[in-house]
Design a protein that fits this description.
By secondary structure, the protein is of the alpha/beta class. The protein has helices at residues 3-10, 33-39, 53-61, 77-86, 97-108; strands at 13-16, 27-29, 45-48, 66-69, 89-92. The chain has a 5-stranded mixed β-sheet, sandwiched between helices. Helix 2 (33-39) packs parallel to helix 3 and helix 3 (53-61) packs parallel to helix 4 (77-86). The mean pLDDT is 97.
């Protein structure tokens, strides 16, 4: 499943649309960025409520293709600019991390 297909399947809004529409290899859910650095897998999605520029930096370190911001958290412009510069998609959803994680598990396995 590609990143754009995942957005459609989740019913999420793509708020940073300038990215390579590559295949997702999995997903990782965490709000602790050091945990993401230690355990997230290359080419996956990050499900979180951490809507700030540091999230993009961490996603870049582990080659995350998309950051899914949950609970309709406001996303600052500097985060979107950083994601655009790094070619990382950013989705926004009103659903919580548990629900999004379950949906991603269902569509990726």
């Amino acid at each position: 499943m590609t990143i754009r297909e995942a957005a459609a399947a989740l019913g999420a809004e793509i708020v940073q649309p300038e990215f390579e529409d590559r295949e997702l290899t999995g997903a990782y859910t965490s709000d602790l960025l050091s945990d993401v650095m230690a355990h997230a897998k290359d080419g996956g999605a990050l499900v979180t409520i951490q809507a700030h520029k540091n999230t993009v930096a961490v996603a870049t370190l582990v080659n995350i293709g998309v950051i899914v911001i949950c609970n309709s958290r406001p996303i600052p412009e500097d985060m979107l600019e950083s994601a655009k510069d790094e070619g990382i998609a950013v989705f926004l959803t009103g659903e919580n991390q548990f629900t999004v994680s379950g949906k991603l598990y269902g569509i990726l396995h």
